[in-house]
Specification:
The protein is of the alpha/beta class. The protein has one domain: Rossmann fold (3-Layer(aba) Sandwich), CATH 3.40.50.150. It contains 10 helices and 8 strands. Strands 1, 2, 3, 4, 5, 6, 7 and 8 form an 8-stranded mixed β-sheet that branches.
Amino acid sequence: MSDISHQDRILDQFSRQAMPFSTAAPITDANALRMIVEAAAPKPSDRLLDVACGGGIVVSAFAPYVEHATGIDMTPAMLDRARQHATESGVANVTWDRGDVTALPYADDAFDIVVTRFSMHHFLEPLGVMREMVRVCAPGGRVIVIDMHASDDPAKAAEWNRAEKLRDPSHVRCLMLGELKALFHSTGLPAPRASFYELRDEIRNLLARSFPNPGDDVKIIEMYAASAEDDRLGIPVRRVNERIEYAFPIAILAAERVSST
């Protein structure tokens, strides 16, 4: 899969997802956003960067607690939604940049908090993005990664990733929790502090804000229905009458970049 074709997939998917994704209740959940802000321990003098910021929800959540918050994303429709969301939230100390998150257009040590949410599973080379996040984080600053994590069972992880790839063709791979933590070690950060929550919803709501290829929605429902019986996806799934409910496991991983000596 070439970089160009993958970028095209991201632009296609997230141009269409801009409004339904960024307004969905599980994505805008106030308790989850509070956990993310608390993990970062923001100070009024902090400068924040949200990498692959999407519809600006995380940036706007941090804005009241920092001096300035910047969001960067490659999808113009998402950035348009981010500007709208900031206006609706009444925050003005924000900046929106369009750019490639694999080569961030910022100086070394430019930010005190560098965060990314629900993005690592879209990157062809998540370690490269993590290196860029650490590069632009000032010594003594905090790096926070929030993402879904797959089962430690390789077969179940592969099956869930297959379902996610059907649902969103721009999906690459949900990492296992140990793999997400290893991104910190591999970039010279200490072992991250971890907190967890679940992104809960019903499968038809998930599909309503997704844009799978024709016919793949039926396959996805079949996979989730089967997992309610045999746990093949490795995530909580259950049937409630005609509903198929799921819970995506989410990790909030945070570490401080060690100060230079």
